[in-house]
Amino acid sequence: MSHDLESVAATLVADGKGILAADETVPTLTKRFDTLGIPSTEQSRRTYREMLFTAPGAAEFISGVIMQDETIRQKSSDGTPLAEVLSKQDILPGIKVDIGAKPLAGSPGETVTEGLDGLRDRLSEYHGMGARFAKWRAVIHITDALPSVVCVSANALARYAALCQEQDLVPIVEPEVLMDGSHSMERCEEVTGTVLHAVFRALFEQGIALDRMLLKPNMVIAGKEWPHSASVQEVATATLRCLRRHVPAAVPGIVFLSGGQDDRVATVHLDAINRLPWPKPWRISFSYGRALQDHALEAWHGRDENLGAGRQALYQRARCNSAASLGRYTDEMEATPVRAGSPPHRREWRDD
Ligand code: 13P
């Protein structure tokens, strides 16, 4: 496989393929394990990641996997480094390199993502361990008064992206406008547009090659406490409209985060966006964490005898999202009937 940045970016959003985000920090994965009574040890976390990375057939739908520091240093049960387990299946290893959202000084209720100190050396080390792309997430909260101008401009995404390209890694740039709160879909569209504009301005000013990166945005969705529900068509239309207004055509791919949406809803939304008849200059696919993993984690439940069921659950969501990335998903692809809704705890399983 060729590893120049343009071909890595193109490979990540190849026809019918998307990314598995399996980059929860140890505390976050521990919280998810806790809700199911699974002990969180280095060994159990390794077993879980290995299960996800070895789901038979999933490589047909998954182009890359985002790991975090512990995982990229781990070996599978037969002693193969997990990054190599992926690359042997032609899945590109990726790595989350931010160290989390921390309170933004002087701006109560907002966060800034940290991790720039020493980043050049860490990127170089990860590249040596097989990583070919990276991820950094900025977090934006919506309230009546937020986000502040300071928060929108303080994120370090452009510095991170410049360092990645210098170190031969494709940067995934992730500005996440959260679904928390009671804001409307219109307000989410307004804030998402403002944030994307600020992000691309900073990327331009800092000389980032837009054709060697991917964007990982939220969809345009009302806050979880907003009392009205939007149709799939409304979400798809607002999301694509916002992206068309603010994302340059040179970016090869947009890979959505799922952000706490029910897993099937995330699939249906991706499918509806891809079915819209408007011009789309970029590939539009997925880089889901919870929406790919939730069922696999529940099916496995920490038990060896369930590893096959966990792999099957991941395969199923990957297959459906692959179809959605082509606008070809149908309800009949689901092995089980549509559920009324996910248990609320799953939606809270996001990373710090
Ligand atoms: P979710 O799809 O669970 O939002 O996770 C994606 C991700 O990488 C968050 O940083």
Tell me what you see in this structure.
Helices cover 42% and strands 14% of the residues. The model has no long low-confidence stretch (mean pLDDT 95). The chain has helices at 5-12, 26-35, 42-53, 69-72, 82-87, 119-128, 149-154, 157-166, 185-205, 232-246, 263-275, 290-300, 307-325, 344-347; strands at 18-21, 62-67, 92-96, 101-103, 111-113, 133-140, 170-177, 214-215, 253-256, 283-288. The protein is an alpha/beta fold and 352 residues long. α11 links the parallel β9 and β10 (283-288). The strands form 2 sheets. The protein has an 8-stranded parallel beta barrel, surrounded by 7 helices. α8 packs across α9, α9 packs parallel to α10 (232-246) and α10 (232-246) crosses α11 (263-275). It binds 1,3-dihydroxyacetonephosphate. 1,3-dihydroxyacetonephosphate (13P) binds at residues 21, 137, 174, 257-259, 288-291, 350-351.
> What profile does the largest beta sheet have?
8 strands, parallel, barrel
Instruction: Please give the count of helices.
Output: 14
State the order of secondary-structure elements, H for helix, E for strand.
HEHHEHHEEEHEHHEHEHEHEHHH
Structural class: alpha/beta
As a percent range, the share of helical residues equals 40-55%
Give the names of the bound compounds: 1,3-dihydroxyacetonephosphate
Task: Describe this structure in a few short sentences.
With 352 residues, the chain is of the alpha/beta class.
Question: How would you describe this structure in keywords?
Answer:
binds 1,3-dihydroxyacetonephosphate; 352 residues; single chain; eight-stranded parallel barrel
